[in-house]
């Protein structure tokens, strides 16, 4: 699929990503050590962000907000909101939490490539964050946080989405069609752990025999304990 001529591909800029510090082993080791993906220097005011990696919307916490300045059109810290305004803001927050456009936009230029690599049993490009997303709180890089699934409700909405749900099932089905069952051979050690986290999340979100079968085949039936702990939190 052709990349938008006026917007650089997410994949072409993946080398700018910061590493993800380890969490219980290899789950979030530095992606830069894999397959020669080295970080390139960026000016301090142009730190890697999902917008610079393919045009997706800026993650929460813009430069203006990080500096402690209120966003345009919004009251500052000292302002008081009416009950109606607070209720309206809560509704907007809920809508934002369930917004899936960040995944649709990120997948647009690379989904065909990702599916082809899965079917060949050899991941070579950089798309794990938004093809097999995992629960927010597991990854520490800005990109991992941006594409983290924020709740079980958002995971259910992802599976119900007419494009994203179909693609997720298609990708898991592509894995199941392979003649091997070693996730490290297909994804590498770091992304293999992310795959287990993703399958664990979506099995909980919408019990589908395909997800359980993939966990049984690729991970000996072991679910990701950190994902289960986060799901169980009130």
UniProtKB/TrEMBL annotation:
Positions of the UniProt region annotated as Disordered: 20-82
Ranges of compositional bias, category Basic and acidic residues: 20-34
Lineage: superkingdom: Bacteria
Gene3D superfamilies: Protein of unknown function DUF1810
Designated name of the protein: DUF1810 domain-containing protein
The organism of origin for this protein: Sphingomonas baiyangensis
């Amino acid at each position: 699929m052709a990349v938008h001529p006026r917007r650089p591909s997410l994949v072409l800029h993946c080398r700018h990503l910061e590493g993800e510090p380890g969490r219980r082993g290899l789950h979030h080791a530095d992606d830069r050590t894999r397959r020669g993906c080295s970080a390139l220097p960026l000016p301090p005011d142009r730190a890697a962000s999902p917008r610079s990696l393919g045009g997706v919307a800026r993650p929460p916490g813009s430069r203006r907000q990080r500096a402690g300045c209120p966003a345009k059109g919004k009251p500052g810290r000292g302002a008081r909101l009416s009950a109606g305004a607070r209720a309206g803001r809560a509704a907007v927050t809920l809508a934002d939490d369930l917004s899936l456009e960040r995944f649709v936009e990120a997948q647009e230029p690379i989904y065909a490539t990702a599916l082809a690599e899965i079917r060949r049993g050899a991941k070579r490009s950089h798309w794990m964050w938004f093809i097999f997303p995992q629960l927010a709180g597991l990854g520490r890089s800005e990109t991992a946080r941006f594409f983290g699934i924020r709740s079980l409700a958002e995971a259910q909405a992802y599976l119900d989405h007419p494009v994203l749900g179909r693609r997720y099932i298609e990708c898991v089905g592509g894995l199941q069609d392979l003649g091997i069952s070693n996730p490290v051979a297909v994804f590498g050690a770091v992304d293999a752990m992310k795959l287990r986290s993703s399958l664990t999340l979506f099995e909980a979100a919408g019990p589908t025999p395909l997800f359980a079968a993939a966990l049984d085949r690729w991970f000996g039936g072991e679910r990701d304990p950190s994902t289960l702990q986060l799901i169980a939190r009130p």
